[in-house]
Write a structure and sequence with these properties.
The chain contains two helices and twelve strands; from the N terminus they run ββββββαββββββα. It is mostly beta strands. The strands form two sheets. Strands 1, 2, 3, 6, 7, 8, 9, 10, 11 and 12 form a ten-stranded antiparallel sheet that branches. The longest helix is centred in the last third of the chain and has 7 residues. The chain is globular. Pfam families: Phage_tube.
């Protein structure tokens, strides 16, 4: 059955899965593999090869309209466990009906930078925080499809653990 992904209906963001954090927008981390350029005998030129399961540092950004208790709390220099729940809309092409699918992101973050924005009459302050991400997982409709945990040598993409053999070789 064909479906067309349309848009994000809305989202909610929590710390420790219970404390609601009001934000206006979240920029999710880029998942970028580490690479190495290879050249030499048997290679006609140079190629860039990814290093299995190894990603560059990840970061995420949360934007707030004003200075809030949540924005201040997220400045605490410690690990914050973030639970971001998203309702997405898609169209069922067979029935033309709109459907809702759920996406959940779990991240462990530490604050890198907080921009306290501006102060002007009758306007938003545009406060934002940038956070280093040490753990990232994504669930589609309740099924874990991605888990990136560099400290525990876990790199699961689409249900496959790409560092399983590496952990075995290292005796982990």
């Amino acid at each position: 059955m064909s479906k067309v992904d349309e848009l994000v209906i809305n989202y909610a963001i929590y710390e420790d899965a219970v404390e609601y954090l009001g934000t206006t927008e979240v920029t999710l981390p880029d998942l970028e593999y580490m690479t190495e350029e290879l050249s030499g005998a048997g290679i006609a030129g140079k190629i860039e090869e990814i290093i299995i399961g190894h990603l560059n540092a990840m970061s995420t950004t949360f934007n707030f309209r004003t200075v809030t208790a949540a924005a201040v709390k997220l400045m605490e220099p410690r690990v914050h466990r973030i639970d971001l729940r998203v309702a997405q809309q898609r169209m069922n092409l067979r029935t033309s009906a709109n459907e809702v699918s759920g996406v959940k992101y779990i991240m462990k973050v530490k604050p890198k930078k907080t921009a306290l924005g501006k102060v002007a009459a009758a306007s938003t302050a545009d406060v934002s925080g940038e956070y280093a991400v040490s753990y990232y997982a994504m669930y589609l409709d309740g099924s874990k499809v991605t888990e990136i945990d560099p400290l525990n040598f876990v790199c699961i993409i689409n249900g496959k653990d790409y560092l399983k053999d590496v952990r075995k070789a290292l005796g982990k």
